[in-house]
Amino acid sequence: MSSESARKHTGKCYDCEGQLELVEFDVQKGTRIMVCQACGLYHLHKKDLFGGWKLLKVSKRLDTQ
Ligand SMILES: [Zn+2]
User: Fold this and answer.
1) pLDDT at position 60, please?
2) How many CB atoms within 10 Å of residue 41?
3) Which residues touch 13 (CB under 8 Å, ≥6 apart)?
4) Å from CA of 27 to ligand 1 middle
């Protein structure tokens, strides 16, 4: 079971499993925001210590407050 999918800047929607598209990538903070092509749900990820991405927040609206 070895998948290379972790290298791609794509993913699946938390809610509907639609395709995600990268909208913002902050190298300094180590965060990225992706949006679902199907339902428009925003996904905020943060890079973890192991080089993977951890899902921090899922939101219908893009607000960083
Ligand atoms: Zn979706």
Assistant:
1) 94
2) 18
3) 19, 20, 36, 38, 39, 41, 43
4) 25
Indicate the pTM of the whole model.
0.77
35 C-alpha to center of ligand 1: Å? 8
- How far does residue 55's CA lie from ligand 1's centre (Å)? 14
User: What spacing in Å lies between the alpha carbon of 59 and ligand 1's midpoint?
Assistant: 11
- Separation of CA 49 from chain center: 16
Provide the pLDDT for residue 11. 86
What is the Å distance from ligand 1's center to 28 Cα? 27
Instruction: Domain ranges for the chain, please list them.
Output: 9-59
- Answer with the residue of higher pLDDT: 59 or 64: 59
